[in-house]
Design a protein that fits this description.
The chain is an alpha/beta fold. Helix content is 35%, strand content 22%. The chain is globular, with a radius of gyration of 27 Å. Its EC number is 2.7.4.1.
Amino acid sequence: MLISKVSDQIKKSKYISRDLSWLRFNYRVLDQARDANKSLFDRLKFLAITSSNLDEFFMIRVGSLYNYLDYGKERTDYSGLRELPFRKKLLDYAHRFVNDQYLTFNNELKPLFPKSGFDILKVNELTEIEQKKVDSYFKNTIYPMLTPMVFDNYHGFPLLMNQLLTFGVVTRTTDEGKPQDRVTFVQIPQNLARFYEINRKDKIIFVPIEEIVRWKIKKLFRNVDIVSVNLFRITRNGDFTLEESDDLEADFVQEIKSKLKTRKKGRVVRLEVERNPSQFMMKILKERWTIDNANVFTINSMLDLRGLWQIVNHRHYKNKCFKQPASVLPLSLPSDGVDMFEYLKEHDVLLHHPYNSMEPVVNLLERAAEDPSVLGIKQTIYRLADQSRVTAALLKAAENGKHVSVLFEVKARFDEERNLREGERLEKAGCFVIYGISKYKTHTKMMMIIRKEGEKVTRYVHIGSGNYNEATARLYTDVSLLTTNEIYAHDVSEFFNVITGHSRPNEYKYLMTSPKNMRSQLIDLIRIEARNAKKGLKSGIVIKINSLEDREVIDELYKASKAGVTIKLIVRGICCLRPGREDLSENISVKSIVGEYLEHARLYYFHNNGDPKVYGGSADMMVRSFDRRIEALFLIANAELKREAITILYYNLLDNQNSYIMREDGTYIKRRAGANEEVIDIHKLFYNKAYVVEDVELV
């Protein structure tokens, strides 16, 4: 009865739960691991991605929920559920996902291992000679790094680290004639390879490190009776970027922050454990971490599927994974041999990654670092590649006496240490470095090169949706613009003055920015379409983003739909809008594209009665993007580049190989090409340079 009541409440809400929507997105990623048309190694890659995704989900989203639960604050989810019933619904759904994740691994992928040239085996499945090699590896490498930590009346509970494989070993001694059980924890260091590799003639054997430790666990417990050996893994609350937590009151943020200072590590929100664990140990862990069965995930296989990356990235299997085609030139760039400083004086260039390489941007920056005519470089940085050429170019520019100012976002989740380290390197070289802007996260991506050319100074601007990361630029789809147009240059100069100094410009001509006015400007554009529809004029909206969660924008889209505006949304991940509901969103359709590349581009199209306005940039339609981040969207003013952007949207809408259609209840179905329908796979099509369609109609 209670389950039925909860389901009815969710169905009645005109919004979809952000967290339940995210779990459905991870199902779409899992779908890639189930795709028999992909190579086994690509399927393992996507399975490992679902595991990484789920780790972050528990650390951040479930962690955020526990910020409310632990501190007694009320929270009503978009689904209409309060904290406790929502926790149950969310964790029930997470259990279902993990079950499907391991069904895929155990039933669909593991049987393919032997025929694919490898296998994952336990130590007792090895030959005697192989076991001797493993024994030597344990003695020389693993054993010296293991530290047993007992918990009993004389030893406090040890600090167990987040997401490390841990053995809970229950031992029994007899004290004064009475049996005494206690538990000792052995954590496997994270800097050891997940698998020990053995080369056989016909295949490679991967032996999980935890199975080696289990095999030799008695070496750590001499002359002690071992009752049980239990492998587990914990996930702790990692939601410490409280400024980005949705709908938190400012005083509550400060309250939690003050309490977090007293915590060494976040509270445990998930416990993964292998089958049939010791009930003695489980009772201790549950009581210690204030968790119950809903937080406990029993795993019938290898814990932590992220370890599969060692197999996917193995040198022997590189040629068995998806091979990325060679990049093509941007449509707006005639050849790769042009002088970009000269070319950009007369032409704007739209880049569509990864189909277009990031080289024009990096090369321009590297050349600017050496060019004696370049006076200065300004840049925002959110995420960087390892051995970053971007950092190297900025260092070289500073060494050559140029003014270099860089805004490093130190709150870029999981890249905080890297950004601090790189920022310090630049500071030492003489760059002007700013580490973020107070309570806002700087998520916008822009760069400006200031160059003296005769009697005038030209500003070369790059602005886009993607990070200055050469590695992810090959894996993420993004759009960006290179230009010397004075309007962009003026707007970007003003924007840099805002984020590095103390300036409040009245308005920008080609930029929309947050936290100032992006939401209101987008709402104004939506309302224009609604007014045009009411007047009987042509109208329409097409938006491609990562996430749609902002309630104010969703409500305006609902109003526009009722006014007769055709609205087509391409939302990769979270979508809190409910499409196709009678008398609410009948004119709204939503699709998600999940495939070989991570869809990361943001494009906004408004019909504007035949004179379309098209924007690209870094911002999604989320509360955090509008209120808690420094973001920018840029108008694509050039007619040819606008046509390119519209064509990108056109084919995104037509794609029938990587697309999922969202239904009114929040579920998704795979879009399949019909019997007489042309197959359109955008992850292949955009490598064809001649893809632009003239006079395309989106709505």
